[in-house]
Design a protein that fits this description.
The protein is an alpha/beta fold. It contains 4 helices and 7 strands; from the N terminus they run H-E-H-E-H-E-E-E-H-E-E. A 7-stranded mixed beta sheet has the order 5-3-4-2-1-6-7, with helices on one face.
Length: about 200
Amino acid sequence: MLSIKQKIEELKEKAQSLPQPQRLYNLVVIDPPWPYGTQDKYDPEGNRGVSPYPEMSLDEIKAIRLPLLDDAVVFLWTTSQFLPAAFDVVNARGLEYWFIITWVKQRFGVGRILRHQAEYVLVAKKGNPKLEPQPDKGDVIFASAGEHSEKPQEFYDLVSALCPDCIKLDYFARKRRPGWDAYGTLEGEANEGAAP
């Protein structure tokens, strides 16, 4: 059985050989591997507050070239620790902050002063993207947490409703979703970039 360090090294190699997406998108969800600096201490039975995958520096995250059309919306996942850095990423990409979505989990996570129970999605835009108003929806998602770093299906349902006709990319995806292209080291798959 591979150690967590070996798994991380294997994922790094896999990520380096990923082909870049071959088309442009008007909706991108991105969940970057923020640099917590504790990835070698991951324990799925104990300390889930660390990353079981390769992390990137803030400069590396800022340098990601998202394949965006002229009018596009970006949903950038972050935690409270990296909320200021997430705004820096939005600004570095030349995007305009639009609004925020908060995911409240049904259980406590880690935390030194208070236990964390939420993650955040900065919604930013390029140009003039159109979103379908959702008068029966709010900017808070109440949903259970799944596997480490897994985002709730309720989020993807909301995003799909906001932009049903968008060409959608899940950047740093961990699995495929119907109607979405996926870019990342997908579980159980050989190196693959965005689906055609």
